[in-house]
Amino acid sequence: MIAKQKKEFEQERKLMVQEQLIPRGITDKRVLAAFMKVPRHKFVPVRYMEEAYGDYPVSIGEGQTISQPYMVALMTQCLELKENDKVLEIGTGSGYQAAILAELADKVYTTERISALSKNAQGVLQKLGYTNIKLKLGDGSLGWEEFTPYDGIIVTCAAPSAPEPLKKQLKENGRLVIPVGESFSQTLAVVKKRKGKFTEEDICGCVFVPLVGKYGWRRYA
Ligand code: SAM
After folding, report:
1. Is-catalytic flag, 59?
2. What is the pLDDT of residues 17-28, one digit of tens each?
3. 211 CA from centroid of ligand 1 (Å)
């Protein structure tokens, strides 16, 4: 029964990649391989397991969601990670995005402000055998100073603008991928650091839960 379920989920992952990611322009082979490998159904509450590979976000409790597979893939592709890179994620949530990053980079640092989510994600990631992910509880809008600078920073919640501490913690030639804009509708932006200066490129419209914190939306705190 369990072996059958595993095979079914593998098949659903394959369909997710073939029908949701490739036709929408996810072409990076390493990104696609990571999506084929990471068992997304293990990151959602048991009652939503059957929905894990759907083309939409899924509730993970505490009023938060695991983002739609395509959005996770697009943001990951925008980071252009290399094997030796060090990457910071703001908004651990279920831990799924962190697992995808761990397949593509050398070291992953991820922060979450809700204790129950961080603890749950840590358990799942440990069970799956990830050893290159460090988790921290706290306000990720401040970044994670201890391990700076980062080759890439990904923010999986929305901010009014790219937080200054995150821009500072980027390595030269690094990339910050972040939804920016109003609280209910944003633009996915890629901020690049070149010779100490920043450029911002808009990728597409998106809708994310708010980044709650000092350099995010204070009014939701
Ligand atoms: N990346 C997650 C995943 O793979 O499941 C999905 C993240 S969910 C869309 C956004 C997360 O950002 C929520 O878990 C929320 O609690 C978290 N968040 C919001 N503000 C934060 C902050 N200042 N620092 C850290 N995490 C924050």
Report:
1. no
2. 999 999 999 999
3. 7
